[in-house]
Specification:
Shape: elongated
Strand content: 15-25%
Radius of gyration: 22 Å
CATH architecture of the largest domain: 3-Layer(bba) Sandwich
Number of domains: 2
C-alpha cells in the first residue's frame, strides 16, 4: 500500500521533495500551500523595483506537478499538526500522513514591535513586492503634483531597514531606477534626487559575505548615491517616520523592512526546541526529536551541516534539504519492517550540505559572489549571478522570458513593469 506523504509548503524545499517522489507508485503525495504558485524569491526584489513581472518569477504549482500522477496539490493553509494522530489540520480539511515534511518558510519579523508592521513593508511574497512598487512609484507621482519642496523630499525618500542581500539589492535597484530609467519621465521633479537610505545595526553590510566583498559592495552603493548608516538601530517607526538610536528622525513615504525573519506560525503547534526565530532545531537527518516520520526543511529548519556549521537560509540549501528528505523516505520504503523501527533510524544518512557559495547583485553590472576561496565582484560577478539565477528558474518559459526581459531592460534602461493599480493589490499573502 502506498505511503501517504504530506508536504507543507511549495517553496524550494517542498518542491524538491515532491519532484523527487513524483510518479513513484510507492507514495501518495499531498502538497499544501496557501498560495497557488511556486515563487522564485531571489528575484522578488526585481518585481518590487519594476524590472520583472509576476509571471517571470512565479509558476503555478499545479502546472509544475501536472505530469506527476501521484501528487495532489491543495490550496490550503496548515493550521495545526497532530503528531500522535498523524494528521495535519488545514483550513478546509484534514490530511493524514505516514511521513510529513514541514517546509512552510518564514515571515517578516519586527523583533517584538508588531505595531511597526502597519507603517512598513516587508518583502516575502508577490503582494509585498507589488506594495513596494506601488508605494515608490506612487510617491513619485505625488511628488510630481505637489509644489511643497519639503513634501517632495519626504515623498522621494526610501528607507530600507536591514543590509542583507534583500536590502542591498533593493537599494541598488531603486538607485538605478531613479538615476537612469525614470530621468526623462517627469517634468516637475528630478527622479535622480530619490534618496535611498539603508540602516544597518551592524558594522558592515552583507554580513554573511567576506569583509572584502562587503566593503566592495558598500563602496559601489555609496558611489551611486545610496546612503548607508552603519552601527545604528531603529528604535521606533510611525507613519512616514523612522526614529534611530543616533541621529535625527528620517521622514520617508516608503519604509521597507528587510531586517529579520521568523518561522511560519504552523511550527508553534509542535512541542520541540526552537531557536530565537522560531525555527525548529532538527536532528542530523532533518527529522524532529521523538517523531522520526516528521521532517523539517528550508528556512524553517535550524540545521547544522556535517562540519557543525549552521546551514544558511538559501534556495540551494533548501533544495538540497528537500531532496535529502525524499531520499530518506524512499530508502526506508524499500525496507520490509516498520519505517519507524529504531534500528533503521540509526541507518539514516545525515544531511550533508554542499555549500555553493552566496551572491548578491548590488547594481547594474555589479554583483559580489563569495564561494569561499572563489570570489568575484563587478561585472564578472554580475554575469555569474545572471547565469546562475536563470539556471535555477523553474520552467523553460520562465528562463526565456526573464532573459528577454532583462536584455530589453539592460539595453533600453527602461524597465517595462512600471504599472501599478488595483490588479496588483489582488495578489494575496
Amino acid at each position: 500500500m502506498a505511503k501517504k506523504v504530506v508536504i507543507i509548503g511549495g517553496g524550494f524545499a517542498g518542491l524538491a521533495c515532491a519532484r523527487s517522489l513524483a510518479n513513484n507508485k510507492n507514495f501518495e503525495v499531498t502538497l499544501l500551500d496557501k498560495q497557488n504558485h511556486h515563487l522564485f524569491q531571489p528575484l522578488l526584489y526585481q518585481l518590487a523595483s519594476a524590472t520583472l513581472t509576476a509571471s517571470d518569477i512565479a509558476r503555478s504549482l499545479r502546472g509544475i506537478m501536472s505530469n506527476a500522477k501521484n501528487i495532489s496539490v491543495f490550496l490550503d493553509h496548515a493550521y495545526d499538526i497532530k503528531p500522535e494522530q498523524k494528521v495535519v489540520q488545514g483550513k478546509e480539511r484534514l490530511y493524514e500522513y505516514d511521513y510529513l515534511l514541514i517546509a512552510s518558510g518564514t515571515r517578516t519579523s519586527w523583533f517584538g514591535n508588531a505595531e511597526w508592521e502597519k507603517h512598513t513593508v516587508g518583502l516575502k511574497n508577490l503582494k509585498d513586492a507589488y506594495r513596494i512598487r506601488q508605494r515608490v512609484l506612487n510617491a513619485l507621482e505625488q511628488a510630481e503634483i505637489t509644489d511643497d519642496v519639503e513634501e517632495q523630499k519626504r515623498l522621494m525618500t526610501v528607507v530600507i531597514v536591514g543590509a542583507g542581500p534583500t536590502g542591498v539589492e533593493l537599494a541598488g535597484a531603486f538607485e538605478d531606477l531613479a538615476q537612469h530609467a525614470l530621468t526623462s519621465d517627469f517634468r516637475n521633479i528630478d527622479p535622480s534626487n530619490l534618496r535611498t537610505i539603508v540602516v544597518q545595526s551592524g558594522d558592515r553590510i552583507l554580513k554573511a559575505f567576506s569583509p572584502e566583498q562587503s566593503e566592495s559592495a558598500r563602496e559601489y552603493l555609496e558611489s551611486v548615491g545610496v546612503e548607508i548608516m552603519l552601527n545604528n538601530r531603529v528604535v521606533d517607526v510611525s507613519a512616514g517616520k523612522v526614529c534611530l538610536r543616533e541621529g535625527e528622525p528620517i521622514e520617508a513615504e516608503t519604509i521597507i523592512w528587510a531586517a529579520g525573519v521568523q518561522a511560519s506560525r504552523v511550527t508553534k503547534c509542535l512541542d520541540v526546541d526552537k531557536d530565537r526565530s522560531g525555527r525548529i532545531i532538527v536532528n542530523p537527518d532533518l527529522s524532529i526529536p521523538n517523531h522520526p516520520n516528521i521532517f523539517v526543511a528550508g528556512d524553517v529548519a535550524h540545521c547544522k551541516d556535517q562540519g557543525g556549521v549552521e546551514v544558511p537560509g538559501l534556495a540551494p540549501a533548501a533544495t538540497q534539504m528537500g531532496a535529502h528528505v525524499a531520499n530518506v523516505i524512499m530508502e526506508e520504503s524499500k525496507m520490509e519492517s516498520s519505517p519507524y523501527a529504531a534500528q533503521k533510524l540509526d541507518l539514516r544518512p545525515q544531511f550533508r550540505y554542499w555549500d555553493k557559495g552566496i551572491m548578491a547583485i548590488v547594481g547594474r553590472n555589479y554583483a559580489v559572489v563569495d564561494g569561499g576561496k572563489f570570489k568575484l565582484k563587478g561585472k564578472i560577478g554580475w554575469l555569474a549571478w545572471l547565469f546562475i539565477h536563470i539556471l535555477f528558474l523553474v520552467g523553460f518559459r520562465n528562463k526565456l522570458s526573464v532573459l528577454l526581459q532583462w536584455s530589453f531592460a539592460y539595453i533600453q534602461r527602461k524597465p517595462g513593469s512600471r504599472i501599478f493599480g488595483l490588479d496588483e493589490r489582488s495578489w494575496d499573502s
